[in-house]
Amino acid sequence: MVRHNWTKEEILEIYNKPLLELVFEAAQVHRKHNDPSEVQVSTLISIKTGGCPEDCGYCPQAARYHTDIEGNDLMSVNQVKAQALRAKASGTSRVCMGAAWRNVKEGPEFEQVLEMVRELNKIDVEVCCTLGMLTESQAKRLANAGLYAYNHNLDTSEEYYKEVISTRGYEDRLQTIDNVRKTNVTVCSGGIIGMGESAEDRAGMLVSLSTMIPQPESVPINSLVAVEGTPMEEQNVTSIWDMVRMIATTRIVMPETLVRLSAGRTEMSDEGQALCFMAGAASIFAGDKLLTTPNPDINKDMELFKILGLKPTKPYKKGDKPAIVDEEVPTSNKADLKWSRPGHTIDKNIAATQKAKAIRNTNA
Ligand code: SAM
Ligand code: DTB
Ligand code: SF4
Q1: Is residue 179, in this structure, part of any structural domain at all?
Q2: Does ligand 1 lie within 6 Å of residue 263's CB atom?
Q3: If you count Cβ atoms within 10 Å of the first and of the last residue's Cβ in the chain, which end, N or C, has fewer?
Q4: Is the CB of residue 292 below 6 angstroms from any atom belonging to ligand 2?
Q5: What is the count of structural domains for the chain?
Q6: Mean pLDDT throughout 251-267?
Q7: pLDDT of residue 320
Q8: Which residues have CB under 8 Å from 69's CB, separation 6+?
Q9: Which domain does 70 fall in, by range?
Q10: Which CATH number goes with the domain that contains 167?
Q11: Angle at CA of residue 321, ends 186 and 4, nearest 5°
């Protein structure tokens, strides 16, 4: 049975169980609801990279920090389709297009993204987008273009969120997820561990996700990739034991959800990842790049699958392929733009911004 009334205390109690007992319990839940021999393989395509106006403390794509990623304008539909076809040939069932945007804006770029969604839908992959905040009418237009999933992470607990991002609030994130829920598009929402948050914060995020009705269809658990130049550049690599605990706990409180072992796998051993699969992780991002940071080579992942007796899941295992519905005429939706966070600041983010400015001045 799926429960929507988990409390932080109950979730913490699960998270803090003796590790092997926790993994055993999670594995039992996993087997009840999923085929444990299958792992869904997703591929990320960064369709618009860098130059983002937000101040997310973990993100190398925020324009205000000095990171050495290569920025790029919106890719063409053909480029994206070619990459998606290559990913499909290597076993991917879902393609997730990511854009370094605060929110979607009406106009030619959004029309181009809608065209990408239609084209990828036609090649029979589950199409996912992560484009920042969305209005209800934008969510509907993505649904009509044949979108399968929308990724919008809560990232952490409501309390710790205030220490990480000042330019938009938790409420804004929840509102976008709500807007997606008004369509048939499935919700992908999770977070990051290793940003300096406490176990209480991790449990708090799981409360926010598990009390949604329905619970998100997929929950990515990322381990922070600490990128030089961001306010989190000095964070230590998250312990694999914390990752296993987080995955197992997510598995137990959201038994029907697809739990994705997401960013941070380059720092994990094969044995560590095997334990994550045992604890209920049933999806990974494959391909040697996430959005801007490295990820294990696909051949290495397939070798690990072979050792562990795992196989990639076929597309649409858990839902039908969305139909591409005739386009409605886009309407101006300025009226439902309500998000904002005036006046909120975070010292670490300000320091990283100032450091970046100083580096730019020295280089000028
Ligand atoms: N701009 C959109 C947004 O923020 O919703 C979409 C792209 S954003 C890069 C998608 C997610 O990637 C973030 O919500 C965050 O959870 C994850 N992410 C970004 N940088 C990361 C990092 N350094 N380590 C781990 N996860 C990260
Ligand atoms: C998610 O939860 N993780 C992915 C995807 N959703 C968009 C992104 C991870 C990004 C890691 C840092 C980077 O490569 O820029
Ligand atoms: Fe921009 Fe998204 Fe990165 Fe935040 S996480 S800085 S919104 S690209």
Answers
A1: yes
A2: yes
A3: N
A4: yes
A5: 1
A6: 98
A7: 87
A8: 49, 50, 60, 61, 227, 292
A9: 8-314+334-363
A10: 3.20.20.70
A11: 25
Is 56 an annotated catalytic residue? yes
Q: Which two tokens stand for residue 352?
A: 């990283």
Cα–Cα distances in Å, from 69 out to 62, 153, 227, 286?
10, 22, 10, 20
Atom number in ligand 2 closest to CA 227? 12
Look up residue 339 and give its two tokens.
Answer: 């998000």
The answer to whether the CB of 91 falls within 8 A of the CB of 286 is yes
Q: Does the pTM of the predicted model rise above 0.90?
A: yes
For the four alpha carbons of 277, 279, 284 and 289, in that order, the dihedral sign comes to negative
Residues in the chain: 364
Domain membership flag for residue 211: yes
Residue with tokens 């948050």: 197
Using CA positions, which residue lies closest to atom 2 of ligand 1? 132
Task: Please tell me the distance from the alpha carbon of residue 285 to that of residue 95, in angstroms, as a whole number.
Answer: 9
Per the domain annotation, does 325 fall within a domain? no
- Report how far ligand 2's centroid is from the alpha carbon of 63 (Å): 17
| Residues 119-130: tens digit of each pLDDT | 999 999 999 999
Grade residue 364 by pLDDT with cuts at 50, 70 and 90.
confident
State which amino acid sits at residue 137: S
Q: One of 181, 188, 245, 251 is an active-site residue; which one?
A: 188
91 in Cβ contact with 125 (< 8 Å): no
Ligand 2 in reach of 67 Cβ (< 6 A)? no
Residue 320 located in a structural domain: no
